[in-house]
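Case study: Glycosyltransferase 2-like domain-containing protein.
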Amino acid sequence: MKTLDILHSRPFGFTRDEIAAYRDRILEEVRRSGSEWVVSSSMSLPAHRQWLRSYDWASDIPQEAVCICVDGIPCLWRREWLRNRLSEWNSRLPAARFLQDDLMPDDESQIFRTETSFSGGLSIEGSGSRNLTSRIPISQLHDREYIAPLLAAAQQHPPHLHVPSQQAACSVTRVKPAVSILMSVHNMRDTMGWSIRSVLAQSSEDWELIIGDDASDDDTLEEACFYSDPRIKILLHSRNRGKAVMMNRLLEEARGRYILELDGDDWLAPDTVRLLSEALDQAPEAGMATASYAWWIRTRQLGPVWKGTMSSVNPPEQALSSQHSALAHPLVPRMYRAASLKAIGGWWDREDRFGRIFEDIELTSRLLDHHLLVQVPAVLYHRVIYGSSISQRSRDLFPAWRKSR
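Here is what the predicted structure looks like once written out:
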C-alpha cells in the first residue's frame, strides 16, 4: 500500500495575493513530502481523510492516474505531478478553496473516480453505493456546481498571459464583434481577474471586452492587463467620475450590436454571451435580454459563498418600467441592443450620489418604456453582494432617488 501525507495548509481569503500565498504554501509542503500520494486537509472532507487513512484503496489505482476524486471532489494527487502542476499554475480564482478544481488534469484518463459508502469503504463510481454528498453543506455543492464548469471551459480556451514589458498588447483590437462586454472598475485588482477569466471562457468567441479603469489607485490596471488577448481594450480616467460616466465612454468605443454589462467583482456563466445574443437575434422587437442569476455573499475568510439563485423577472411580461423602477435592485444580467441603448442616450450621466448608485435601474426603466424584454431560462450571471459596497450601504436612499427622477 502506498503511503500518503495529510497536508495542513488551509484556504483563506480570496484576494489575488492570498490565493498565490495559499498556492505557495501547499507547493512547499508538497516538495517536503516523502510520500507518493498526498492529500491536503483543505482539499477533502474529514470523512474522506479518515477512510483514506484506514482503507487499502491504493491497490485499485491505475498507474496512469495522477488524481483521485472522491464523491466528485479531487482529494489525492501523485506528489510529483502535483508539484509540477502547482509550479506552473498562475491563474485567477474567486476563492482559494477552488484551487483543487483548477488543478484537475485535462486528461480524464489521469483521474480515478470513487465514491465513499456509509459502511466505511470505498467503491468504484457507479456501483450504486450511497455517498456522502448529503453530508456536504448545500452551499459547497452549489459552489462547485457553478465554478467547476467555468474552470473546465477555461481549460478549453487557455488564455495568453501578459508579459509586463508588452502592456500595449492589451489594447489591440480585431474584427467587429457581435457583443461588446463593458466593465467599469475602480480598485478591483483582487476580483476582476476572475471576471475577465469568465469572459475568456465563453463558448462564443464573438465578443470584445472593454474595461474602463475609473482612476483606481491600486493595481487594477496591472490586473486588467494580466491576460493578453486582442479582444480586450482598456480605457482610463484620470479622475474618478462614477460608473455612469465611464459606461457612456465605453459605449462610445463599443463596436458590437449588443452590449453586455459585467461588474468587476461578478462573473459570467460559460454560455452567457451565446444564449443572450441568440435571444435578441430571435426577438428583433426586444431591446434587452436578461436571465436568472446566482447570488453570492462575500465573506472575509472564504471569499464568495453561494446563497441562492434568483430570476430577475417572473413572469417576463411584468417587466414594465413603472414596476421595475419600484424595485431597489437592477435586472441581472443585462444585455442591451446597442441601437436601442444609444437611442435613449445611454446611462444617466450625473455625478452626484444618485448617479453613482441607481444608474442601472434608471437606465433599464427608460429602456423598457420603449422596448420589450426577453428572458432566457438559465442561470447566466453570478452576482457577488457584500455589505460594505456603496449600493448596499445606500439602499435606504432608494425612495429619495425615486422622487428625484
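For the exam, be able to explain this: The radius of gyration is 23 Å.
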